[in-house]
Amino acid sequence: MAEVTSLCVLIFFGFVAFAVFRWRRRELYRLAAKIPGPVGWPITGNAHMFVSVRSSEDLEQVLRKHAGDIGSGISKLWICSRFLVVLSEPEYIQTLLNHPSAVSKDELIYGQATTFLGRGIITRNGEKWARLRKPAIKVLHPKSIAEFELKMQKRLDELYTVLDTKAKNGGHFDISHYITRFCFDLLVETGAGVKTINELKTNSLNFPTFLEEALEEATLSSISLLTIFNLNPNFKLKKFGYKLTQISENIMRARLNATTSSAQDENKNCLNIMDLATSVGELEKLNFHETSKLANDFIVAGSDTPSKVIAGVLLMIAIHQDVQERMYQEMKDVFGDSDRPAEKKDLEKMKYLEMVLNEGLRHFGPVLTARRIDSDVPVGSYVLPKGSLVILTQYYVSFNSKFWERPYSFYPEHFTPEANQSRPKGAFLPFNAGPRGCPGKLYAMQVLRNTVSAIVRRYHITTEIEYHQVTYKFHLQRSAGNPIIKLARRL
To answer: Which domains does the chain have, with CATH numbers?
Structure first.
């Protein structure tokens, strides 16, 4: 009898707890009921849709199919008690990104990134994010960008040495590994004032492979059921994070040594990402290890984003020889037979180069972005309730025939002035927008312009791969899985 009574008491209090839980979230349920979406199962909601997800590509396909099935530009999903809203309408995406109540990153999506990257500008929220964001924007000011471009040619000369050997050998090779190492070296010198690291030459860190494995693990961990229920120990990802922080610590030590030597004057006008991390670390009373971790996401984003776009663009123009030839002729018009380094005024004349790079960003841009809603946000005729997780499906928008004449082609004419005017702004946001837009946009675009133009001027690029044979990986952004090309010297 006592056992039955105890069971009844447990059931009663369980029912009361559930009722209180529902009552406190009544406004969320009321607003959620007005948003279209599939009917979920009891308790688990729509979690069954993600059972078959084994990779970031699987996740993207599930969300893309869901967005396409709904067709209204907004839809809802329930993952147990978590309420998700999926946005695939440019107007809604633009509104959300610019709203002050949608600047927080959600732990469900970005929690695993925190394990790997630490609490830097990508994963921070609230006052700590603002504290790092404001000086980061100042550090990445256009004036600083112009100054660090002077160091670009030195790193390009090092890249030429490697690629000249590849061209001389005449075989096909994966360009992505060399471009990632080049971008890493460039970021370390221009972003931290450290000249002594040459990963392109030594490959001592095996940085491209390490980064690829870490990003894949972070992506898969984010969609694990263990993560959803906060039961994921993340041992492998913690190991990756420790190695990344060791890299940041080495760069930090080199930077600190530079500030006490004659190199200080030479590097005083560089981007000084490490100086920024040091100042924030002192303000927050962080130790050396934690201070170094503040630079982790700068290193990953500053190396990964431009390198994947560059490798993807080089593959695409190797496939599309007409595009490559038009780029080369535009450069011949600007430089003639001179092999002098490109200057800012030269790059500004290359309108077709800009179109090609934008088409590359469309193909190899962010897959999705997630935001936590801190207060109700009106979007069109709907209201996104406080506490919901909003997923912006940029990849779906980037390949939607409503906004692109030839979505599944590499077609730079998507970015003629006329095409840009006719397309909603929210349809093309490769660096996001609003308060949490990428602070390194100017840096990334300068790296893209200088590197791609330099390679096309120096080499003719070919490949045996056809457009329909290109494979893709989905991590922070979409990237080419098989950028295998062949180079031949032009000059």
So the answer is: 43-102+367-428 (3.30.43.20)
